[in-house]
Amino acid sequence: MSQYDIYALGAALLDTEIEVSDADLATFNIDKGVMTLVDEARQHELMNALSEHLVHSKRSSGGSAANSVIAASYFGSKCFYSCKVANDENGKHYLADLSAANVAFHNNNGVDTGITGKCLVLITPDAERTMNTYLGISEQLSTKDIDEDALSQSRWAYIEGYQVTSETGRPAAIKLRELAHKHKVKVALSLSDPAMVQFFHEGLSSMIGDGVDLLFCNEAEALAYTKSDNIDDAAEVLKACAQSFAITLGAKGALIYDGQNLSTVDGVEAKAVDTNGAGDMFAGTFLHALCEGASYEEAAKLANRSAAIVVSQYGPRLREEQYLELKSN
């Protein structure tokens, strides 16, 4: 029996959410709806200018894959997270938050000097999230941070596509996929963000390598990665690099391929105020459901319901009682 359901590799970022207008984005020359890497000075500039717009001031342990495994853990999955934080206040807070969510991590994390990564999440009135990320020490995540013993005792390995931007994170993602195959652990990967696909297509392809067991992406990412004009053509191309996949379609639901059948699972109506973490919630819930023996369609239905709730409130997490309610229905 495996010790862990999901072993994930990704960035460790402290999130702060700020409500802004489209005019604010234009004023500060910020590309809407994507993740942009910035230096610490730029992040401070934005924080100081927009601090009166704060909507989610509680520090939240983020990073795409972290959001996913924390969600899976609250649903009941046993999870391990490989990330890198510094020996600073934010790093200590981050690891304490993982522990509170019952997510395991390697013992020597948080011993190096540096700055723990931070993400400024800008929310516009249409609920779209725009991220400005200072990776800090997360940019140094490398193959040394992989715990092969924990990985070998896991059912799934999950990789966030954001690792493609890092000169050490990308090789770590590739190494994790190779080690997972060696130990017969299934591999899931998320394309993460349209900007990652647009600017790092070749790097993402190297991370996918000869194929993954499950690929997560949204419609824009699927079209961009496959260079297709419509979702049906994109799905056919994805079959060549993924044994199965889930393409989220926003309010329209999700297009699911379980390795044999392609099907559309209806979305769940929601009044969106903040789409930050929606894809992460979908992936974490989906993987948890598969670990529980659910079919792909069943997993997508639960994932759609979870994502619908998370977009209807601020922040990338659900409250503990919301996880319990989802599990009981």
Q: How do the helices and strands line up, and which of them pair or pack?
A:
Elements (H helix, E strand, L loop, with lengths): L3 E6 L3 E7 L2 H6 L7 E3 L2 H11 L3 E9 L1 H12 L3 E4 L6 H12 L2 E2 L12 E7 L5 E6 L13 H5 L1 E7 L8 H14 L3 E5 L3 H6 L1 H8 L5 E5 H8 L4 H8 L6 E4 L5 E4 L4 E4 L12 H14 L4 H16 L8 H9 L1
Parallel strand pairs: 1-5, 1-9, 2-7, 3-8, 5-6, 9-10, 10-11, 11-12
Antiparallel strand pairs: 2-4, 7-8, 12-13, 13-14
Helix pairs in contact: 3-11, 6-8, 9-10, 11-12
In short:
Strand 9 (154-160), helix 6 and strand 10 (186-190) form a beta-alpha-beta unit.
Structure characteristics:
329 residues; five-stranded mixed β-sheet; globular; 14 strands; alpha/beta; nine-stranded mixed β-sheet; UDP-N-acetylmuramoyl-L-alanine:D-glutamate ligase; single chain
Description:
The protein has helices at about 20-25, 40-50, 65-75, 90-100, 150, 170-180, 195-200, 200-210, 220-225, 230-240, 280-290, 295-310, 320-329; strands spanning about 5-10, 15-20, 35, 55-60, 80, 105, 115-125, 130-135, 155-160, 185-190, 215-220, 245-250, 255, 260-265. The chain has about 325 residues and is an alpha/beta fold. It has one domain: Ribokinase (UDP-N-acetylmuramoyl-L-alanine:D-glutamate ligase, 3-Layer(aba) Sandwich). A nine-stranded mixed beta sheet has the order 6-5-1-9-10-11-12-13-14, sandwiched between helices. A five-stranded mixed beta sheet has the order 3-8-7-2-4. Helix 6 (about 170-180) links the parallel strand 9 (about 155-160) and strand 10 (about 185-190). Helix 9 packs across helix 10 (about 230-240) and helix 11 (about 280-290) runs antiparallel to helix 12 (about 295-310). It is globular. The mean pLDDT is about 95.
